[in-house]
Amino acid sequence: MVQLVGSLRKELADSLYTCKVLVVGAGGIGCELLKNLVLTGFKNIEVIDLDTIDVSNLNRQFLFQKKHVGKSKAQVAKESVLQFCPSANITAYHDSIMNPDYNVEFFRKFMLVMNALDNRAARNHVNRMCLAADVPLIESGTAGYLGQVTVIKKGLTECYECQPKPAQKTFPGCTIRNTPSEPIHCIVWAKYLFNQLFGEEDADQEVSPDTADPEAAWNPEEATARASASEKDGDVKRVSTKEWARSTGYDPIKLFNKLFKDDIMYLLTMDKLWKKRKAPTPLDWTQLENKASPQEESPASGLKDQQVLGVWGCCQLFKHSVETLRSELREKGDNAELVWDKDDPAAMDFVTSAANLRMHIFSMNMKSRFDVKSMAGNIIPAIATTNAVIAGLIVLEGLKILSGELESCRTILKERFGMVAPDVQIEDGKGTILISSEEGETEANNSKYLSDFGIRNGSRLQSDDFLQDYTLLINVLHTEELERDVEFEVVGEAPDKAPPPQSNPEEVNSITNGNKDSAQPSTSSKAPADEDDLMIVDSDEEEGAPSSSATVTSGTKRKHSDLDSDKSSTKRPRTDPSAAAGDEDDDIIALD
Amino acid sequence: MIEKEDPIISEEEAAQYDRQIRLWGLDAQKRLRGSRVLLAGLGGLGAEVAKNLILAGVKGLTLLDHEQVTEESCRAQFLVPVSARGQNRAQASLERAQNLNPMVEVHADPGRVEDKPDDFFLQFDAVCLTGCSRDLMVRVDQLCSQHRIKVFCGDVYGYYGYMFCNLGQEYSYVEEKPKVVKPSGDSSDGSGAKKAKVDPNETTMVKKTASFCTLKEALEVDWTTEKAKAALKKTPVDYFLLHVLLKFRTDKGRDPDPQSSEEDGELLRQIRSDVLDALGLSASLLNDDFISYCFSEMSPVCAVVGGVLGQEVVKALSQRDVPHRNFFFFDGRKGNGMVDYFGPN
Q: Active site annotated at which positions (chain A) (predicted)?
C-alpha cells in the first residue's frame, strides 16, 4: 500500500508543495481553479487578470462579493483564497498577460500554466509564450452548459494555433447599409451609427445607403456610373455624418427623419434591390406621434428589459438617448468622442431604439432591450456549475502532467496525415462510410475488422477532411511481411498535412461583434485529390481505422466551434446533449 | 410545493442573475427562487453543492451536519475557516456560505439526519444527501419520494465519485428545441415578396415526462438473471465500486482513512470479494487497482461531481432540460464521466 497524503500518493503530494504554477485569468474558470488548486495541495500559485469585478460576475465568480465590485479580480481572488487557506503562497497581478514584462523568462518559472481566459488574442499569446518557454499549457473554455479542456505540450501535441479557428462572423457592407434581413444586421448598423455620431468615425462603418451596391445596378455600366456618382455626389457626400449631426445640434427629430425616412426613401429608389425582397417602409415622426396609443402598462411579471417596445416607444427612447448622449458629448468638450459600452444606459438605449426602428422598417419583429444587449454586447451566458466542472478537470490534467503521465492527457495528437475531421468512405460503389467526422457516428466501427466491410487487397478508401480542403485516396494492400506488432505501413508519397489553402478574398467589413460564429464550411472549390500518392499496407486484416479515435478532446466539432468563450459570440445552440449519455468517451458527459 | 411564485424580480436579482437568466430563462430563475433545499453533509462534496445552489439563487438552503470540524475538513472544503476546529461543521460553514449570496436564506443545523422526524423533510422541495450510510439514504429516499420531494445522493471517494437522483415516477419537464419555421407561400401585400423573416434563434419548449425508481430498487438489481448477465459487459464497474464503498461505510461507520491506509486497503479488498460474491458475480470484475485511489475526498473530483449534482438539482427545481437518469459516475483517474440507468425497466 502506497503512502498517502489525503487522496494523493506521497510523491505527487510532495511535488505539489514545491512546484510553481500560473493561472491566467481570475474570472469564471479562474475562481474555481484557484480554489481547486489550493485544496488539492498546490502551494505556489501566481494569478493574473486585468479586469475589475462587476455585479454580473457574482452569479459564478464566487470568490467575489458585492462589496468587491470595482476592485481588481486577481487581488480579491487572492485575498479570498487566503481566507480558507492561509498557508498558500499566492502572487496576484492586476495586469494584462500581454504586457512585455511577462516575457519568456517569466514563463519559464512555472512547471505548469493554466489558461482561464475569455478571448482569442490572449490565448494565442500565452500559447506562444508557453511554446517558447517549453512549459505545458492547459487550455480551456466554457460557454453556457458547455466546456472543454485540452493539454498543450510542445513536441507532443498540437498547439492552440495549429488548427485554424473559425473566423469571427462578418457581414457585407451592403447588407448592413441597404438590405438587412436579420435583427443582427440592424444591431450592427446601430452600433456603427453610434460611432458615426458620438464616437470614433470609421470608414468601414458607414451607415448611409450604399449606392455602389453591386446588387442595385441593372447592368454593369450602371454599376460603374453609380459608383463614380457616389464619389462625385458633391457636398452631401463629403460631409460626414457627425458633421451633419453637429450642424443640426444633434436634433433627435431631424436625425430620426434623415435616418428612418429620407435614407429609406433613397433606398427605395434603388428599385432592383426590392424586386425579390420586401421593400422597407419609411417612418415619419409626426405621423407616428399622432397615431401613438396611450402608454401600455408595463407588465410586472417579467424583467423590464425583456419587454418589446412599440414603435412610438422606440421613437421616444431614441429621442431621450440622443439627448443624453448629446450632453455627455458636450460635457467632455471639443472633439470629444464617446466609446460604446453595453453597460452605459444611454448608449444601450440608443442602440436598442435605433436597431428596433430599423427592424420595424424592414419588417422584422422587434427585439427587447435584453435581447439586443445580448447581441450588441456579445454576452455569453454563464453559470457556476460548468466552470466548476471544467476547473476540476483542469486540475486532474495538471496532476497527470506533474506525474509525468503526459500520454494519458486530453490532447490532439499529430495525426499521420494531418487530417482533422476525416470522413472516410469505401469506394465500393455504395459509398459505405467507414469513419465519420461527426463524433459518435462511427465509434462502433473502431473495433471491427477491415474485412467486415469487405475491404480486401486492392480496395480503395477515400478520406475527405471535413474541416480542411484535403482529400486523400488510400489504396489498401495486403502483405504478410510486416514486422511483429506493426499493424500497418504507409508507402508512397504521403502528405502529413493539408495542402496550402487557396486564397478566397471576400468583400466584407470586419466587425468585432459577431453573433453565432459557427464553423464556416469551406467556400473554396475542392483542391484536386492527391490521387494515387500513397498506399496503406496492412499486415493482415486487422482492426479497422486508426487515427480518429486518437482524438480525445472535442477539439473541432462539426456543429459548434471551439469554446473560446470569445467575447465575439453569444449564446450557442446546445447540440448533442443527452445523446452523449452513456457514451464511453473520455469527454465528460454531464454537460447539458 | 414550490412557493407561490413572486412575479416580481427585483433589480438586484436581475443584475446579479443576468448571465444565468440569459441561459435558462426567467421562468426557471423564478422557480429556483421559490425552492427550499436540504443539504446533508458539509464535506468536500457538500461544500461544492452548497456553493452551486446558493449561487443559483434558491430560496433557502439548510446545511445539516452533525460532524465536527477537523484538520482534515479544513483541507477538504473552502467554507470552513481554519480557526473553526472543534466547531460543528454546518455552523462553521454558515457565514461563508451566506456571503456567497445574501439573497438566499441559508440555515445551519447541527443535528443528525437519522434523528430527524419524518415531517422535517416535508418542508423541502429537494433533499441532497452526502456522506450518509446506504440504509439511511434508502430510508430517506423512500420517505421523500412518497411526498413528491426530489431526492439526490452523492459521494466522493478519492478519485471516484457518483451522483444518484430520484425525481419520482412521473417527472414532467420541458426541453428547449429550435423552432421549425415553415415558409409561408401566401403574402398579404399581394406583391409576392417574402414575409417578414423569423429569427433563426427562436426556440420552442417541448413538454416531456420521465420515470425514476427508488434508490433501493437501483441498488438491488438482480445480476443473476440471463438478461442482467448479458448487460454486464456494458455496465460501468463504478456501480459495483459504489457497492463496495457503501459497505465499507456501513461496516466501519466511516470512509477509508489515509491514516490507516494499510488496514483499510485490506478491508476494501475483502469487501470487494464479499460484495461481488453476494451479487453472484466474479471477483475479477473489480480488480485491486482502485484501492489506493479511493481515500479522502479529492478536491477536483468534488468540483466535478458537485458541479454535475448542483446542475441536476437546478434542472429538477426549474423542471427544465433533460435530467440525468439515474446515476452519474465520475472516474477522476481516467477523466471519464458516465450517465447510466440502474433499476427496473
A: 174 (glycyl thioester intermediate)
Report pLDDT digits (tens) over A390-434: 999 999 999 999 998 777 777 665 444 555 566 777 666 666 666
**What letter would DSSP give residue B111?**
S
A392 close to B300: Cβ distance less than 8 angstroms: yes
A179 touches chain B (CB under 8 A): no
Beta-bridge partners for B162: B155, B329
List, by residue range, all CATH 3.40.50.720 domains of chain B. Answer: 11-170+299-340
CA distances from A97 to A80, A125, B65, B328 (A): 22, 8, 43, 38
Question: What CA dihedral angle connects B187, B193, B199 and B205, to 10 degrees?
Answer: 30
Q: Which pTM does this prediction carry? A: 0.79
Kindly report, residue by residue over A84-131, the tens digit of the pLDDT: 999 999 999 999 999 999 999 999 999 999 999 999 999 999 999 999
The nearest CA of chain A is from the CA of B277 a distance in Å of: 24
3-state secondary structure B9-70: CCHHHHHHCHHHHHHHHHHHHHHHHCCEEEEECCCHHHHHHHHHHHHHCCCEEEEECCCECC
Of B23, B80, B100, the CB nearest to A144: B23
Q: Which residues of A211-243 are buried (b: 16+ CB within 10 A; e: fewer)?
A: bbbebbbeeeeebeebeeeeeeeeeeeeeebbe
Total Cβ atoms within 10 A of residue B6: 12
Residue of A nearest to B322 (CA): A578
Q: Do B292 and A1 touch (CB under 8 A)?
A: yes
How far, in Å, CA of A41 to CA of A88, rounded? 9
Distance of alpha carbon A585 from alpha carbon B12, whole angstroms: 41
**What's the CATH architecture for B11-170+299-340?**
3-Layer(aba) Sandwich (3.40)
Q: How many CB atoms lie within 10 A of CB A427?
A: 14
Bridge-partner residues for A429, per DSSP? none
Q: Give the Cα separation of A340 and A96 in Å (integer).
A: 22
Cβ under 8 Å to A: B residues 130-149: none
**At which residue does the C-alpha cell 454546518 appear?**
B90
B192 Cβ contact partners less than 8 Å away, ≥ 6 residues apart: none
